[in-house]
Hints:
Layout: E1 5-12, E2 19-25, E3 32-36, E4 43-50, E5 54-60, E6 67-73, H1 74-79, E7 82-86, E8 93-98, H2 100-117, H3 125-144, E9 148-150, E10 157-162, E11 165-170, E12 176-180, H4 184-188, E13 194-196
Parallel strand pairs: 9-13
Antiparallel strand pairs: 1-2, 1-8, 3-4, 4-5, 5-6, 7-8, 10-11, 11-12
Amino acid sequence: MLIREACCAAFYCQRCGQIHVHEIPYFSDARKTVLRCDTCGHEQAVLERLNGGRISVELDCVVCGENNRFVFSLKRLHSVQLEKIYCRKDHFELGYIGCRKKIEELLSFNQAEFEALHPSDGKNFIEKQRVLLGVLNRVDEMASTGCISCSCGHSDISAELHGHYIVLSCANCGSCYTLRAEKASDLAHIGRYIELLVPGMAGDR
């Protein structure tokens, strides 16, 4: 069977932060296709062919923890040049869909623009995304195993992304803890346990 490429998609891996360009075939015998990260093997997206010449794309967002589902017509995918895909809840950029050339041009432009704006602040745009997602995943793992708490005695902790920082907040007393998420060393310096300190009790850590 002849499989013709409809377009390509590039998604940030929600585990390691790398981005890879995948081909989406216009015709395929498979009803469901799982796109995985070329670096760590983590599931990036699930493509499902629907009735009426449509295809759905499901993507998880590590920032809000929710699943996003987008539906495209195959006709549209065959002609789209470039479209950015964002999380519907927090508008976090998840990736791109369109023709390979346009996607690769945009990735190159993003890298060049980042280097121009931050000439002494690191050389790799994708590395920034990798570190950010790595820290978010680390925080999620710690929260799920009870390794994040507050000195007020509560463990209902929320996490919000603020630029290159992740702010942990206690829902009970409002105490905060800020994690930097910009350099590889930031990820490496996260310990096995995080405790938010109530102001005035033990000072900041």
